[in-house]
Design a protein that fits this description.
- The structure is a single chain.
- The protein has 7 helices and 4 strands, in the order βαβαβαβαααα.
- The protein has 145 residues and is of the alpha/beta class.
- The radius of gyration is 16 Å and the shape is globular.
């Protein structure tokens, strides 16, 4: 099972993970690191390293971050460069994270997992009116996650 670290500004990481667990239940091998306003980037780096140390070795690691170019993204990229079998995704959304949590037992390659996560995230972004096209939208989305 691929290890996941979710990080972002404010309570993005913990809030997003709490929402995922509400939808699909408890998830192992996931650590959240919130980058709070009072923290320095050095403190963020230290927390990300501790998060890595808390996860089982040899399973690969994928960092889910909020904004491309932000401190959580940059720190994750720098950390991942020293790690074999790791990758970083920016622009994480609930659709992406929930779907990929359910796929972790089936995909053991981090690069394949990251590629699929990006596809899931893009599918979860739409304009309601454009998607509607005259169809009853409630029926289309009634199953949900």
């Amino acid at each position: 099972m691929i290890n996941l670290i979710i990080t972002g500004h404010g309570r993005f990481a913990s809030g997003l993970f709490n929402a995922v667990e509400q939808v699909i239940g408890p998830q192992p091998q996931v650590v959240t690191v919130d980058f709070m306003p009072e923290m320095s980037t050095q403190q963020l780096d230290e927390q990300l390293k501790r998060a890595l140390d808390s996860l089982p070795a040899g399973s690969g690691i994928l960092f889910f971050t909020d904004l491309i170019g932000g401190s959580p993204f940059r720190s994750s990229v720098l950390l991942s460069q020293a790690l074999p079998d790791s990758d970083v995704i920016a622009g994480t959304n609930l659709q992406m994270l929930a779907e990929m949590m359910m796929e972790r037992d089936e995909i053991d390659d981090v690069k394949t997992f990251a590629t699929q996560a990006l596809a899931c995230g893009k599918q979860g972004i739409l304009n309601f009116r454009s998607a509607d096209q005259g169809k009853p939208a409630v029926e289309e989305f009634s199953d949900g996650i």
